[in-house]
Amino acid sequence: MTDKFYLDEAIADLHSILDMVRWTVSRFNDAELFYGHGTDNAWDEAVSLVFYALHLPHTLTAQTGDGLFAARLTKSERSKVAELVLQRVQTRLPLPYITHEAWFCDLPFYVDERVLIPRSPFAELIQGKFESHLQNSPLRILDMCTGGGCIAIALAYAFDEAQVDAVDISADALAVAELNIEEHGLSERVFPLYSDLFSQLEGQQYDLIVSNPPYVDAEDMADLPVEFQHEPELALAAGEDGLDLVETMIAHAGRYLTEQGVMFVEVGNSLVHMEARFPGLDIEWVELAQGGHGIFAVTKAALDSYNQQDK
Known about the structure:
Layout: H1 3-13, H2 17-31, H3 42-53, H4 60-64, H5 75-91, H6 95-99, E1 102-104, E2 107-109, H7 122-127, E3 140-144, H8 150-158, E4 163-168, H9 171-183, E5 190-194, E6 206-211, H10 218-222, H11 226-229, H12 244-252, E7 257-266, H13 274-277, E8 284-285, E9 295-299, H14 300-310
Parallel strand pairs: 3-4, 3-6, 4-5, 6-7
Antiparallel strand pairs: 1-2, 7-9, 8-9
């Protein structure tokens, strides 16, 4: 059966929100879509799509309960849902690229194909204000490889007296970051800066450096699902073991940290290569209660010690 048949049938025969969500799940399962950009299963993805099409806040069921799903839809509303389902299935675009909205740290952000869709386990650390990892609340923060600015903005909310520099090498990504900074009203505290890692930051020092850099190794890049191939390769790939940018950061970050400063870096699956690439580097792997892995913390003292031994 053709996609048009499925659309016409759904628009004609289905009636409620629940009908449309169930139908959407079936279409997603039939297409064998991949998830991981805000949802991790067909049901949650379908609910997100249907609520977006109906201009309903994603938190509405917390107020109404499941009774909302019995609400009947107009023909034009069913048509809108069906069109979005067709777009998701045919293009395999991640849903946030279709809706241009993603959530991180319970905050909404604009996204498009110029930036990664936020999904970092850094959210747990930010919401917990890096408890037990920092001696003092940071006043100057660097978000290295900021992309769309989600981490930088979330950090500014968490530490409301801090200035945050949001750095990236991609002018396209920084344009998106600037949109998000303005939308959140943080233009006086969060500053998008063009820099190839630390190259344009000479003389700056930070109490906290946070980085979710490109860290996908060559093997994982070759196996990425189609959905992930819509994201900018510049923000994903980082050499054979995924640690090319991390090596530069470890070599130079000590100069940009205050005496009690700490750097946190996400390396994901490339954590398995860390010991071989940086033998003897004193790092702490962060335990994450909400899931996720591959974030390490390293102090200025540890970086200075490692780089002195390396010479």
